[in-house]
Amino acid sequence: MDGVQWVALVVVVVATVVGVGIFARGATTITRTVRIGRSAPGRWRPVGPRARRLVAEVLGHGRFQHRPVVKAAHWVVMLSFPLLFLTLLTGYGQVIDPGFTLPLVGHLWPLEWAIEAFAWASLLGIAALFVLRLRLRPRGEDARRSRFFGSNQAQAYFVEATVAAVVLAVIALRALEHARGGQSAWHFPLTAWLAPSWDQGTLETAIVVVATVKIVVSMSWFVVVGLQPTMGVAWHRFLAIVNVYARREPDGRPALGPLQPITTQHGPVDLEGLEDLPDDARLGVGAIEDFTWKGLLDFSTCTECGRCQDQCPAWATDKPLSPKLVTLALRDHAAATAPYLRAADESHAGLDLIGGGVIDPDALWACTTCGACVQQCPVDIEHVDAIVDMRRYQVLMESAFPKELGGAFTKLERQGNPWGLPARARLDWAKGLEFDVPVVGADVESADDVEYLFWVGCAGAYEDRAKRTTRAVAELLHTAGVSFAVLGDGEGCTGDPARRAGNELLYQMLASANVEVLNEVGARRIVVTCAHCFNTIAREYPQLGGRYEVLHHTELLNTLVADGRLRPAPQEATSVTYHDPCYLGRHNEIYSPPRELLDSLPGVTVAEMPRNREQSFCCGAGGARMWMEESIGTRISTTRATEAIGTGADVVATACPFCTVMLSDGVAAAAAATDVVGVPEVTDIALLLLDRVREAETSA
């Protein structure tokens, strides 16, 4: 070994000891922070399905849909990390012996080809990501529109620069290795052309220097990252593996649909066990230590990519809520307070999240729980669960919630519906129909006596626009010869508004009563017109022992048309744009049946809005926002209605009564603001079908 090698060896050893040591300390800090959280049962098993989904998610990059360039670039950079790690190990040997190669695999040509291919691909990939970040960087008055607004850009550029430096070093080393001799160009398919014509001594010195630089750059990355445990843009490459594995749904679905039952530090809570709770029990999340360890891991895993922020309807309409910024605030707060909480023996000494200024109350209550953030997140962060858990604490422990919700809660408690109307009026929608609507317990003994129990829902029973949909569905079922019955005044609110607003105990009271009724009448197959009722009965009632086959009315009607039991007649050409309800589409992945039903209507042409299916924009009613004033920024419904008007469609088709109400108001507001003439009609798909079925019957 010459003098250069001795100096290089000392530098490499010191850099490695410092780098690995500091990185290990950072990893320990994150682990200790995550461990202050509550338990999260069921996150490790079943091992097989979780492991398979993890591999599929990592290799398939399924959460990068609609972003092909980013997907390809991130994919090669991600896979180059473990593959090019072999070149890091080789570099340590090259500091001592420039001709060093790894035993057994050092001259294995398939591995050498893969290393060179991924090195070049990673260089191109990281360049593409760097350019993309520059193009999308926050700037001027439009800074808020960038998905990187609020992200730490300097950290991201550092990570990208490190990757670029490492892959350039790999490429340079491969070229120098070929120039030094010993292997044919076959082993250097993509770097042989770069080989310099230097003498042997210069080549060996260059190999030592480049290998040292490569190691020092890598260890510098370890030092910077280790000193900043909140540097999610770097740590996610390790934490995302655990976070994706421990996702809420083992089958790989995003954490949407049902909310998780409420828990305390002592375990799950239901109505029966409420009185037995100890005095120190805390319902929901009021301090950082009230989150589960998975919630805290979520925050540490955030890459700050801003995809959630880019899709959030609240942020897009100038509300203070950004799912990314909420996540980052919780991450930084957890990192800052975790040492003190551990020192206090986890005695709940943490700062109150809402009252303490960590999370803006306006941001907390701006969420529509549409799930766009969860659906877009590439590392499976469960934003909606975190927000609802914080709402639960505010409602159940602090009685701190928007004043409009107080009235809704009271109406739900006293009348069993958020409109506050009497149960005896639940069948008023059926008055004037040319056929009788049977009621379970009065006209039929049980739900087993009919094909379907028709769950009308509160909107379908009390709201005028929704009642038209209810009547239409009933008439269509009658026309198709489908036997059905309703519960009449035996039906109560499913509890969706209460649960999304954080009033979990009120939800359990309403839901338990409904499950008891449904089980008593022998309900097996249920059809609903409300996307929120659909989600609650199909996905949440199983938590309370209510398991039923639940169909949305667009699914059933689509089947009836396909089977020829409903025959729509041609009408004049009509352009229709369809709005995906969040709780039907994104939460339950029902996108095709409504569109197939529209396609089956003669004369109807579907014009999609720019944001549709998984990327559909919310109407603004979810998360109990239907019952709250929208006084900050632009109304979400107006923004969505403007998109609908922009398609030039004659009709905006909906499949949820909440969407119908919100978009009807939104279209009116958007038209008034822009002086548009001939605004589209907002109506449920069932009404479009009914018009054509009636015409077919008249023609016959």
UniProtKB/TrEMBL annotation:
Keywords: 4Fe-4S, Iron, Iron-sulfur, Membrane, Metal-binding, Oxidoreductase, Transmembrane, Transmembrane helix. GO terms for molecular function: 4 iron, 4 sulfur cluster binding; metal ion binding; oxidoreductase activity. One of its GO terms (cellular component) is plasma membrane. Residues 293-322, 355-387 form the 4Fe-4S ferredoxin-type domain. The keyword Methyltransferase does not apply. The keyword Disulfide bond does not apply. Signal peptide: none annotated. It comes from the Bacteria. InterPro entries: 4Fe4S_Fe-S-bd, 4Fe4S_Fe_S_CS, Cys_rich_dom, HdrC_iron-sulfur_subunit, Helical_ferredxn. The chain crosses the membrane at residues 6-28, 72-93, 113-136, 157-176, 206-227. SUPFAM superfamilies: alpha-helical ferredoxin (SSF46548). PANTHER family: IRON-SULFUR-BINDING OXIDOREDUCTASE FADF-RELATED, IRON-SULFUR-BINDING OXIDOREDUCTASE FADF-RELATED-RELATED. This is (Fe-S)-binding protein.
